[in-house]
Design a protein that fits this description.
The chain has 292 residues and is α/β, with parallel strands linked by helices. The chain is built from twelve helices and eight strands.
């Protein structure tokens, strides 16, 4: 098993924490889901490191062991993208493959827009776009109310969970870490996200040329399959792989891990100019010829 090294750096006055698996000249940055710790990606990071990648798993601001200021203005997808770029600057990484799940997927999209020349490829699992509006409102409005108006109760519950011993089971411990978060910063975090843009708009997404592997699945109102499908249609160099269910990459990850590892290999084998030319050739071959 690949050993893990934990590091930290300061960004905009806040301390951010990351784990590093493997080594070499193929950096891959991974980003967790909403308020989840970086440990949610540990098995996938280890597997991809064993495939020859240097995998960095970041706790964005408000997540895991990174600072959690109680200030909603410090939380937005654009600011999270700046933190990804800050990690690259801290480690003197010129370019990397970047990927994430749910919130991490949308941070990846913002990073593609903010620094396209520094992203070799994108792994986008369960993006949250236009078709997710109703599902997100139904799911996260009660959570926002609970951690703000019900802060005394949720704070007491979190304090109890924080003292519980961890089980050693990866998924259970990730859930316990999520449930033990102080609700004050969590409320500020959710308010910041609610009042900012969730993802780059469609007219911007259609201009993203970076190769992308999009992972979607059916029967999830928060991450509708239609959003994953729309993203593949919008981004010129994106392709889709469908998960069998929402937990496949965490519970039975072998198939998707192989697909992800192969995609990362492709990103490092091809030069950016070669990828763009290849896409133009495919588009030209697929275009209908005019009559006459």
């Amino acid at each position: 098993m690949v050993s893990v090294r934990t590091g930290e750096f300061m960004h905009a006055g806040n301390r951010l924490v990351y784990d590093e698996y493997g080594q070499g000249d193929r950096p891959l940055i991974m980003l967790p889901g909403l308020l989840l710790p970086r440990s949610m990606d540990r098995p996938l990071a280890q597997a991809l490191a064993e495939s020859g990648n240097r995998v960095l798993v970041l706790d964005p601001l408000g997540h895991g062991d990174s600072d959690r200021p109680e200030d909603m203005t410090q939380y937005s997808f654009a600011l999270f993208a700046e933190q990804v770029i800050g990690l690259m600057d801290h480690l003197a990484i010129e370019a990397a493959v970047i990927g994430g799940t749910s919130l991490g997927a949308n941070i990846t999209l913002e990073t593609l827009v903010a620094a396209p020349d520094r992203v070799r490829g994108a792994l986008i699992e369960m993006p949250v776009l236009d078709n997710a509006l109703l599902g997100c409102a139904l799911a996260f409005t009660p959570l926002l109310v609970a951690v703000t108006l019900g802060r005394r109760i949720t704070g007491a519950i979190a304090s109890v969970i924080r003292r519980l011993p961890r089980t050693g089971s990866y998924l259970i411990d990730v859930g316990l870490d999520w449930a033990s978060l102080d609700p004050g910063p969590s409320g500020a975090y959710l308010q910041g996200l609610f009042f900012g843009r969730i993802a780059p708009p469609k007219n911007v997404r259609t201009q993203i040329q970076t190769p992308a592997l999009v992972i979607g699945h059916q029967r999830d109102p928060i991450h509708p399959f239609s959003d994953a499908g729309a993203l593949v249609e919008e981004m010129p160099n994106a392709r889709m792989i469908q998960a069998s269910w929402i937990g496949e990459l965490r519970v039975t990850p072998e198939r998707l891990t192989r697909e992800i590892a192969a995609f990362v290999d492709e990103c490092w084998k091809a030069r950016p100019s070669q990828r763009s030319a290849s896409k133009r050739r495919r588009a030209g071959a697929a275009a209908p010829r005019s009559a006459g």
